Every structure is written in C-alpha cells, then in structure tokens.
Amino acid sequence: MFQSFNLFPQYTALKNVTLAKELLAQEQPDYKSRKKEILAEIEAEGRELLAKMGLADRAGHYPHQLSGGQQQRVAIARALALHPDILCFDEPTSALDPELTGEVLKVIRGLAEQKTTMIIVTHEMAFARDVADQVIFMDGGVIVEQGDARQVIENPQQERTRQRPDKTRTVFMRSAFLNFSGLFSRILYNGNYQDAGGDRHAQTLVPRQGGLYGTPHAPL
Question: Global pTM?
Fold first, then answer.
C-alpha cells in the first residue's frame, strides 16, 4: 500500500478493487463461456471487501468523492482482493489527519487479529507496540535496534533509540519476514514465512552490499 493511495481516478471504489482480478480472469480457459458468472463473483467479492472496510455505501463513489482514510481503505481492499501472502504498507497513515488515521489503523489492527502477514513502515509507536510481532528501528538508513515489539519500544537498549524514538523510522512485522525491495532495498531479514498453502518455512537471509542503505550490517 502506498502513502498516496494510487487509486485510479476514473474508476469507482468498487472498480478499483475488482479491476486487477477482472483482468486476470480473462486468462482463464473458460472465461468466454463463463464471463458473466465470473465477473459477478468478482464483483460480489469486491463488495464484500469494501463492506469489511466499512465502505459498503461508497462502492459507487470515485476517489475524489472519498476522504483520505476512505481512499486508503479502498487501497487495502484492492490489495486483499488478490489474496496476497504478504501485505506491505509504506507509512499508510502519513497523509492522514488524526481522525482518519484512526480509521486506517483500526482496519490494520483487524487484519493483524486475523493473522494476516504484514510488513509496515510507520511512526505510530503505540500502534506498532500493540500489533507487531517484531520491530526494526531505522535511522538514516541504518538499523539501530530490532527485536520483540513491546520490549524494543518500551525498553530500548540503544542510546540512539532512547534519545529520539519519534524521529526513528520503524518497520514492524506480523508473522513473516521477506525481502521487500521497495522498503529495504537489498536489506534482507532472517525469519520465517508462511506460504499460500499455510505451511511455514524457515529461511536465512542476510543484508547485502550495494543496496540503498550502503554499508552492510551483521545478520539480524
């Protein structure tokens, strides 16, 4: 998910949610013979996702008719429509005022309660503490501290983290740890991930030279 939502302005909220799946459906061998049925199923799922986001009555609205919080929730529904293994958020509340921020955080908290795997960049420290499995504090592109969310946020061990935690970027994670090129460049994380079939896998990945953040660090 992007900070600026990136919804298609010419499409309704519902169409933004269903468009990708509609295009993918065209590759199905039986698409021509079952087109009406397939599109009806996709639309029903799109409406269900919008309802889960609290936007059932906004399905026919265009992005310019929605608040920032509503647009971000449409973007989350759009991502969920493709049943991803991992959701990646780049500061999903940075462009929102406090009231709208609460709307989006409520949705993300609900996803966490459903055991959805997420990697999120945020400045919302209290939220990260309550929802995350693991956090990584970053400052100037360098990993300052990482570990259990509550332990790191409430009892930071590094002087830099204790001095100005509000100025430190926090990456918080639920359940999975994978390379997210848009966020970490080529910094990779040790951990586990769960595949589409529900099986958990262990993997060992280490930071590499030459990424956005320059000098490599020791394996996490």
Answer: 0.69
